[in-house]
Specification:
about 170 residues; alpha/beta; five-stranded mixed β-sheet; about 25% helix; IS1016-like_transposase
């Protein structure tokens, strides 16, 4: 069994995803609420994640900053070299090929699915939807984001492997 975080006694092993011949979609998302329920100002926690196509193995990591150094460190820790990484066109990802990955960019300002290659980031976008939906609707606290994500990842892993969460937890 492998899941992503260690939180409140739940030890979750780190198992990198991807390998030569596999594809991993990566993205960053802010978990929070719009301030005053309007506009684009979102108060909350940045989370960086990746999902392996086919197996749906994934990782979600809360981060304080979404800068190049922070994200590259996570990519190198969680995604095996030789993997094809699919991302948006953010400049921080431009060096991935120099780091031993194949890299394909999807330009979301033009389309969400590349018409020539068929590449997209729909899988990671779906993961964001699932993860955000799993968060408590009320009294959500930024300080508990690790626990919320650990619970989500644990339940997702148990469902994917057809395991009983109670048996696996205890």
């Amino acid at each position: 069994m492998s899941v992503v975080l260690q939180h409140d006694g739940l030890v979750l092993k780190r198992t990198p995803i991807g390998e030569v011949g596999l594809e991993v979609e990566i993205d960053e998302s802010k978990f929070g609420k719009r301030k005053y329920n309007r506009g684009h100002l979102v108060v909350g926690q940045w989370v960086f994640g990746g999902v392996e196509r086919g197996s749906n193995r994934c990782f979600l990591i809360p981060v304080e900053r979404i800068d190049k150094d922070t994200l590259l460190k996570i990519i190198e820790e969680w995604i095996l070299p030789g993997t094809t990484i699919i991302s948006d066109c953010w400049k921080a990802y431009d060096c991935l090929e120099k780091k031993g990955y194949k890299h394909f960019k999807v330009n979301h300002s033009v389309n969400y699915k590349d018409p020539e290659s068929g590449q997209h980031t729909n899988t990671i976008e779906g993961l964001w939807r699932q993860a955000k939906f799993s968060l408590p609707q009320f009294h959500r606290k930024k300080q508990f984001i690790n626990g919320y994500l650990a619970k989500f990842m644990f339940q997702k892993m148990c469902k994917a492997q057809k395991l009983d969460p109670l048996v696996e937890f205890f």
